Amino acid sequence: MSDEFDVIVIGGGPAGENVAARAVRGGLTAAVVENRLLGGECSYWACIPSKALLRPVELAAEVRRVPGLTIGPIEAGKVLARRDEAVAHYDDSGQLRWLDGVPATLLRGAGRLDGPRRVRVTAPDGSERTVTARHAVVLATGSTPAVPPVPGLREANPWTSHEVTAATSVPERLAVIGGGVVACEMAQAMHGLGARQTTMLVRGDRLLPRMEPFASELLAASFADAGIDVRFGTGAVAVERPEPGGKVTIRLPDGPPLEADELLVATGRKPATTQVGLDTVGLEPGRYVEVDDSMRATGVDGGWLYAVGDANGRTLLTHMGKYQARVCGDVIAARAKGEPDDLPALRDTADGRGAPQVVFTDPQICAVGLTEAAAREAGFRIRTVEYDLGSVSGAYLLGDGYRGRAKAVVDEDRRVLLGVTFAGPGVAELLHAATIAVTGEVPLERLWHAVPSFPTVSEIWLRLLETYGL
Ligand SMILES: Cc1cc2nc3c(=O)[nH]c(=O)nc-3n(C[C@H](O)[C@H](O)[C@H](O)COP(=O)(O)OP(=O)(O)OC[C@H]3O[C@@H](n4cnc5c(N)ncnc54)[C@H](O)[C@@H]3O)c2cc1C
Ligand SMILES: NC(=O)c1ccc[n+]([C@@H]2O[C@H](COP(=O)([O-])OP(=O)(O)OC[C@H]3O[C@@H](n4cnc5c(N)ncnc54)[C@H](O)[C@@H]3O)[C@@H](O)[C@H]2O)c1
């Protein structure tokens, strides 16, 4: 096997895989170094299993809202079995076949930079080899869960996103530290699959603090209805678990301690860049790798190092990592061939403006662009419009007691949308229309002619524009 490739990608998650595919499409050779499973965190311990666990919970809630249908308890065992199928039983041979077809080479093992354009790969059997990149090395090593320094927490061996998405049973009593996306999605999944007591310890005053406040409120109301105990302004001050895998006691700032059978820590991520040899190329290990809009790492002589996906910290979402990967693979190919490297498609212009995101809870929460607070902070002259989604015929027909809301943030100087947020059952598929409107900076007067079909939830677009005054 060759020891030289045009491009070497360290990390075979969704971002890394896509860099390799685009570079090969551009006429280059590529190798992907992966030390666990090709497909990355997203395929086995994040997006895919979490959504497989949430789907029946969401569907059961939808069915319960429609009179005339009855539904029994969810059979957690069957849901966990379907999750196992969704993660291909933690076997990446399907992904390998895909990579072979690209075609690109898999180097199974841990990759580490070893000076400019060199990567040392330690195979699972401990053997080592050094491979060289003719044009570029791309770091796509992702991120790992951050565990806060609470006394006793690490020793208690809590669940992180990794363990909860791979759970083989549902704990009777689950405690969750955090109020972000992982905490909300996984608290709902475990509660819906049968946890008898689910308690969330949220240090702030609302769930999903980066979303519009109304979305946080709707979600909190839904959790309260479902019997999830959400406690704001609190957190763990100490954790005890005398028996490995046994009962956990969580000491709180005040009041009696909380007892649980399992504890999930969902307090954000840290970059997986401590063990990748950043020090050999003049960068500081353990930090997000700062990149320019062509995904090239800043501060590295020769401009041969790139970073995509979670590893650069721009936006920790699969679709954004894959978008960056397309930019990166294409720009590397253009530069290698001496072609223009500054075309619009060769720059990341979507990060930093409020990337589209769907939180797959019930209600679903999704948003793109700027929230009202972010737009004000950025100095825009704005007006906001809100509308009750339950008053839209298409939403009403989805089920009784449909609760949802939408909000648009309008740039008053240009009369275009800066951001849109939807909260409600089944709103995820509304988001891409908003993404097109915001990214395309479609004038409201033009948007008026995009007529939504009756009776769909998309009629919310008409109602928002009417509320604005069109
Ligand atoms: C529970 C959960 C649910 C999520 N749900 C969603 C969702 O619904 N939608 C969404 O858009 N995002 C979601 N995310 C975020 C998403 O998982 C990440 O943004 C995405 O996985 C990042 O992709 P990546 O390719 O950058 O990194 P990863 O997917 O983390 O892949 C990195 C790969 O690099 C490998 N690697 C690391 N170091 C080395 C090394 N030294 N040598 C060789 N290989 C190495 C790892 O083994 C891994 O396979 C979720 C995250 C979590 C935790
Ligand atoms: N559906 C999706 O798109 C999806 C699903 C899951 C995860 N993700 C992505 O994965 C990433 C990680 O998710 P996450 O939920 O772990 O992170 P997050 O940043 O969304 O939320 C972390 C939460 O933990 C809190 N927190 C931080 N430190 C704490 C501490 N010491 N004590 C108590 N609380 C603390 C924060 O205030 C925040 O509310 C996010 O960027 C998210 O976008 C996306």
Automatic annotation (TrEMBL):
Keywords: FAD, Flavoprotein, NAD, Oxidoreductase. Residues 356-461 form the Pyridine nucleotide-disulphide oxidoreductase dimerisation domain. It is an enzyme of class 1 (oxidoreductase). Its EC number is 1.8.1.4. It comes from the Bacteria. Pfam families: Pyr_redox_2 (PF07992), Pyr_redox_dim (PF02852). InterPro entries: Class-I_Pyr_Nuc-Dis_Oxidored, FAD/NAD-bd_sf, FAD/NAD-binding_dom, FAD/NAD-linked_Rdtase_dimer_sf, Pyr_nuc-diS_OxRdtase, Pyr_nucl-diS_OxRdtase_dimer. Its cofactor is FAD. Residues 5-320 form the FAD/NAD(P)-binding domain. GO terms for molecular function: dihydrolipoyl dehydrogenase (NADH) activity. SUPFAM superfamilies: FAD/NAD(P)-binding domain, FAD/NAD-linked reductases, dimerisation (C-terminal) domain. Belongs to the class-I pyridine nucleotide-disulfide oxidoreductase family. This is Dihydrolipoamide dehydrogenase. It comes from Nonomuraea roseoviolacea subsp. carminata.
